[in-house]
Amino acid sequence: MNxxxxxxxxxxxxxxxxxxxxxxxxxxxxxxxxxxxxxxxDLFHQVSAHGYCALLCDHNVTTLxxxxxxxxxxxxxxxxxxxxxxxAEEEEGTCAVGTCLVEKRPIxxxxxxxxxVINAELTCSAAPILNPFGEMLGLxxxxxxxxxxxxxxxxxxxxxxxxxxxxxEAAYFYHQFEDQWVLCICNNRxxxxxxxxxxxxxxxxxxxxxxxxTARQQFGGGIYKTMIGRDIEDIFDIKFDQLIDLAGxxxxxxxxxxxxxxAYYFATLRSPQAIALKSIQIRPSQKTKVTPPKELSAAEPxxxxxxxxxxxxxxxxxxxxxxxxxxxxxxLLNGETGTGKEVFARAIHNASSRANKPFVAINCASIPESxxxxxxxxxxxxxxxxxxxxxxxxxIVQSNGGTLFLDEIGDMPTSLQPRLLRVLAEKExxxxxxxxxxxxxxxxICATHRNIQDMxxxxxxxEDLFYRLKGISFVLPPLRQxxxxxxxxxxxxAIEAKTEIGAISIDKEAxxxxxxxxxxxxxxxxxxxxxxxxxxxxxxxITSTNLPEEVANQERPALLSHIETSAPKKMQPVPQREQSWxxxxxxxxxxxxxxxxxxQWQVVKAAKEIGIGRSTLYRKIEKYDIVxxxxx
Length: 632
Fold this sequence. Notes:
The protein is built from 24 helices and 21 strands.
């Protein structure tokens, strides 16, 4: 009454959001809704026969999902137990949803315990749903229009709600850390296999990245008050390497003991999606039963150690990267086209404490100069002709708290470089059409195949921005320089074939050709070659006859013109300018031709596969004198 000025006798119904407001709230909580809905439906099926409805609310106590008896929809709406309803304490006073949010604990508000008289017949039980860092994601509630007078009648209702909240938390935890090791702990061996609470997310070095509510309560006292950032070996009497070894064996549950008091627990360990290949020595004859990720691309959450493989130079780079993780040091990745710079950037993000935050990538070379400013900084409604009615959130704001990856930073227009420098210095941005700055917490990783220092000397790249972005730089070696090329080819083949390593073998002659090839297109080209070889092979073995011509016949220069041999009289001579192209340019021309031919000269599809913008591809087609078949 004193704080919010609410009259308990006010007969106004619970506030309901407009359709537009509800849509915006639901879109903002899309991931949470998708993960939580199955649990809410299971809960409703358990309680529906007893006259309850089920509500799922976000951290703003807005009802984003509702299940109830369709024959009572009118009564549910009148009581405010419906989609879009707002059950905040500052509007309704004491109520299960609002009070649960404030106190962050499961609670039943029964009949007259409701502050407003209009709600005095309801009985509601709610439990909070917390994210892996103890922050409120939302809550789940079951409510009934009528119930027995005694509050004791709601005891089991509250237990069901608490159980559902814990299950949703666990599902969300597994989703957030699907690319990390997850240790699940139980005090009973028989229940350990089915237990889905008391979870710890571990990085590849055994450091605790996050803990669910049960784990924080169980192990968060005393010297373990803050578990995040601690080594798992400081908490349990077991080496992280031992856990990894155990995870690969048939035994599913292992006893572990706490360091402090020697109490025994039982644990299971879930492997990351893409780490199944880690620490495996790859040989053509090996038949290890491992399911690799679908393909080696920037979309796959590969680990730093897996990317380094057995290459000594890359191992050294990964060691240095791990030392600067979470030190607020910008990272610049240099390397030829196709060396996997974005894949490394994602792996750096996944290995950091920001792994559960957004990774936002933007290719500075593929976005037209007229659009890159709005892409980066966003804009307010009506900022310019053609702007969306709701405005647009820029990539920088989208990456807030996570990682912003600026690929091909060397191609950023000079007109935008001062604005980016200001953002990095002041930690805030001003969207187009706005006068109010938005604070952002930035972690920036940049990548380029160009020599930025030379560009600084030429005056095409700002020196102050270069030194702001280059906290530390790494040069990713091209494929031809990797010392573990044979092993990498075996692994890439397993990934492309979507099978275990060694299930498809490569004969000695084919492997020699692959390892001897110069690979101007690096990993991107290797993937295409292996896909072609798989398509040409008859079964579980690749021979030299299955390889593309440029690999199989390395003693002869590859034909770059790609003119159909069926019409020799019309063959166009190789452009004279080819003599002045560098090896990198010749490789780029080959990749562009192969992609255009593959997609029947559809520029949009080819540009998407190569990873550049359509306008950029048109410029390169003109640069390399590439002529489509219908214009020859």
